[in-house]
Amino acid sequence: RDVLLAYFSENAKNYKSSKLWAQYSMVKYVMLDNLRQHRYKQIPQTVPFLKRTAKKSKILTKSEIDRFLSSADDKEFLMIKVGLILGIAGACRTDELVNLTVDDIEDVGSSLIVKIPNTKTKIPRIFVATDVGNMLELFRKYLSLRPPHVKHKRLFLYYKAGK
After folding, report:
1. Strand, coil or helix: what is 61?
2. Has this prediction a pTM greater than 0.90?
3. What is the pLDDT of residues 82-125, one digit of tens each?
4. Alpha-carbon distances, residue 117 vs 50, 96, 120 (angstroms)
5. Assign residue 161 a region: left if phi > 0, alpha if psi is -120 to 50, beta otherwise?
6. Cα four-point dihedral sign 29, 35, 38, 44
7. What is d(CA 154, CA 54) in angstroms, rounded to the nearest whole number?
8. 3-state DSSP call for residue 129?
């Protein structure tokens, strides 16, 4: 009964939580495959242990976000600022931000209308990002810096060393 807990406790000293979950998945598959229809009692007891070992993501406060948006250098962090603004305004997943195109965003003067066509749930959604602080100014500045020779319509481009 304690074999799996001992195994994962020992591995928790050397591996990250993601590695432990991968190992758990493999062990579970092998054990269930070997035992076929029998339920193996040790497997459910390891889940609470693995959840306790998971690192929690740090969460930024509103004041930290405001401080970043106002004080971080636009030359270096403009794309991150725009991603942060759109991500928070629309509660977007990372892949939704990556797949945003310039055609998905409509600037209507006092706000942005953002269409997310490809979502995890396969249900397109729309949100409005209103102008708070200098949000629209940052977005327009980022869009104006887009090189004219770019062949694709992705909103976020990869920059390295200012290129």
Report:
1. coil
2. no
3. 999 999 999 899 999 999 999 999 999 889 999 999 888 889 99
4. 35, 9, 10
5. left
6. negative
7. 34
8. strand
